[in-house]
Amino acid sequence: MKRIWKQLTGQLRYQIIIPFLLLTLVVSVIGASLSFFFLAQSIDERFNNQLASIASSVTDSIVAQERSNLEFLREAAFAPENNDPEVAAPAVAEALATNDRQGLARALHPYFRLARNRSQLRIDRLIAFNQAGETLVDFESFGQASEPTVHAPFLIQGLPYIDDVLTGRADDLGDKYAYIISFDGSETYYLVTIAPVYHNEQIVGGLIAGMRLDSFLTMLRDRSQAAGITAYDTAGRILHSTFVENTDPIDSDFVRGFWNNPDITSEGFSVNKDLQLAPREFKAAYAALFIRSEPLGIIAPALSNEFVMSDWQSAFAPILGLVLVLAVSIIIVGVFIANRITHPLQDLVATSKDVAAGQFNRRATVYRENEIGQLAVSFNQMTEFLTQLYAQVQSEASQRAAIVDSITDGIVVVDDQGDVQLINRATRRLMRLPDDAPAPKKLSDIPLEPLTDGVPGFGTQRAQDLYTLGDFIVRASIAPVVGVDQSRSGYVCVLQDMTSEVAVDRAKTNFIGTISHELKTPLTVIGGNADLLLRGLVGRLEDDQASFVETIRLHANNMAGLLQNVITVAHLDAGVTTTDLEAVELARAVDEANWRVQSQIKAKGLTLTVDIPSDLRPVWADFDHVRQVVFQLVDNARRYTSSGGISVRALDCGDHVRVEVKDTGRGIPPDMHEQIFQRFIRGDGASEGINSAERGIGLGLAICKQLVERLGGTIGVESVPDQGSTFYFTLRYADDTPKPEKSSSMAAAA
Q1: Which of 271, 284, 213 is nearest to 242 (CA)?
Q2: What is the mean pLDDT of the chain?
Q3: For 710-740, what is each residue's pLDDT tens digit?
Q4: Where is the HAMP domain (predicted)?
Q5: Residues 239-276: tens digit of each pLDDT
Q6: Architecture of domain 582-736 in this structure
Q7: According to the model, what pLDDT value does residue 389 have?
Q8: What is the CATH number of domain 215-308?
Q9: Stretch 622-640: mean pLDDT
């Protein structure tokens, strides 16, 4: 329809016809609008009445279900002893009083099973808890399963009304309560009823009967024939919705006005509101859910607006047909008149199209003594100028193409949609593409694969944007093509052949790793033998002898640690190090890392404190990587701290955790905060020599940075000279892992 309208308004003759057409349409539309107005009022009123009836039926069903659940709890709470040999269950109250889990399970199992088979009763979960607030029995049934699922015991204290039930507190309506809750903090909500259990006139615990909100709302939706039902809490947040599409919370202004309405407690009260769930539209009736005179939330059944549209369509067709007949009549007359006026322009338009198609020898043949004739003369002059300009541009383009084709690096030019516009001869060489073969259509068609196996390091930084292209290794760099007016017209990708450089770097890395590994073995033997001498394996040593042997052991162990860092770097560069991501308990990794260095910290007279919250969620990481990062940071703090202490703590930052290692050492100058994570940078600068047994060679923090980035986190330092340092790194939680992303520049161009 838009394309037809554009064609109509884009031609002069239709610009003459359309005003007559619009005048006729205005008269027709006014009459049709009046008819539609009165019809809409009738349809809308009937629609609203049906929606209000569904809302009242849904809320009444929920209240009735809660009452049935309460009757069920009374039966279960007063259940007597069952002497049937197949059951052999004690009374429910007695089992609760004695904390008899097995007996209580046998006593409640028949009631839970029968409750699932009653048509007027719906129990999805049954929980029995003792006076200490610990669950003894926790049954839950899913679907048509014959046997319930038994949940592990947990402390139920702290949930709403639990303390009221256990202490015998009651309100005007009694000592039973109802509310909506999620037991384990997940998105599964239950409508529960809770009641105390008495034994010898003493409260010994309580029972909770719950219905899963998701399945209960689905049942109510099918029973009421609503399009969908959504449950909200009292603040308007979504608890569950039967709609497949995502629904939004209720805005705060609507919720505030809803609860402040003086008629909210009236029978059948509801507020209608439009609901947009793309691509469909609904109208929902928001009704308050009161149980025991307490507001539990808002129930919103909804009907599709297609119900209204069907009646609209039946009345719309006849009126639309009349309007179309009148419009066609006016168009026929208008076309006849417009053709007489616009015929000279058709020749000019045809000529302009031929010129645009490349026929630069065409000229307009309109000869009129009016504005159209003047337009034809100007058009012919413009065509002559464009012909000369085109020849000049073609010559310059050929020269630029020859320059690009002579560049030794691969050049790929793409537009904003990723379509390849140009490749040079070097790119064809890298792709093994013959000169007469067609170029790839998309940048993504070039088989560039990120180099992950043994990414080399050049200088102090690791090489970035390295890819494999067939037998070649290339460095790919992307830059936007920006015009004089700062508008972007695409991207240019440069492919630099790095095959030889990478081969040399890999050989260097393998050589360093091999030499380091060969040196580590004798150093380990020296350190081990020195330790045996100190332990008196060959007899008691003199004080001077023991001092010399201790020096040998310390320096051997320190050198072995330095070589281990070199081996680790070699493994990282060679791609040997693997990263196995899984849910990791951070506290265990920190404890194992601290255990390796705590004796050295204690020997130096320093204190070590650890603050890891007990309820901290598991992180998504590699256990060995986390342990090594914490060890390197704590050991680094030990080396550069002469007095005071070291603290390790974890901070919950919402979607990730921040681990901090803080010391009371000499601090790091601000200009070193970025450099300190580069290889061979340590102390006060890269030029400082190895002058202490406590000093490393500047690889520990570089290893930490690579390992943390492998885990998808970040690492940094906050430090002021003479005031200590705080090294930190971040990790994602296991239940909130990020999705992998492509390189931003390559993704934008592709």
Answers
A1: 213
A2: 80
A3: 899 999 999 988 889 999 999 999 987 654 4
A4: 339-391
A5: 888 887 777 888 888 888 889 988 888 888 888 888 87
A6: 2-Layer Sandwich (3.30)
A7: 83
A8: 3.30.450.20
A9: 91
Query: Cα 121 vs. chain centroid, distance in angstroms?
Result: 40
User: d(Cα 40, Cα 300) in Å, to the nearest integer?
Assistant: 23
Q: Do domains 64-213 and 582-736 have the same CATH topology?
A: no
Token pair in block for residue 57 = 């039926």
**CATH class name, domain 64-213:** alpha beta
Long-range contacts of 165-169 (CB under 8 A, 24+ apart): 165/194, 165/195, 165/196, 165/203, 165/206, 166/131, 166/133, 166/196, 166/203, 166/205, 166/206, 167/203, 168/196, 168/203
Determine if the pTM surpasses 0.70: no
Longest C-alpha distance within the chain, in Å? 126
Alpha-carbon distance of 621 to 709, in angstroms, equals: 11
CA angle 745, 746, 747 (to 5 degrees): 90
Element of type H or E holding 316: helix 306-356
Residue type present at position 197: V
- Percent of the chain whose pLDDT exceeds 70: 79
Residue 189 burial by Cβ neighbours in a 10 Å radius (0-12, 13-18, 19+): buried
- Are 289 and 297 in contact, with CB atoms under 8 Å apart? yes
Segments making up each domain of the chain, as ranges: 2-45+329-351, 64-213, 215-308, 360-406, 407-497, 505-574, 582-736
| Confidence band of 746 (pLDDT split at 50, 70, 90) | low
How far is Cα 672 from Cα 677, in angstroms, rounded to an integer?
9
**Mean pLDDT, residues 490-503:** 80
Q: Strand (E) positions, 52-176?
A: 125-130, 135-140, 149-150
Q: Are strands 461-462 and 466-469 parallel, antiparallel or unpaired?
A: unpaired
Within a 13 Å sphere around the CA of 199, how many CA atoms are in the beta-carbon half?
20
In whole angstroms, give the CA distance from residue 619 to residue 587: 10
> 407-497 architecture in CATH?
2-Layer Sandwich (3.30)
Per-residue tokens: 78: 């007063």
d(CA 630, CA 609): 13
List the structure tokens of 49: 């009445």
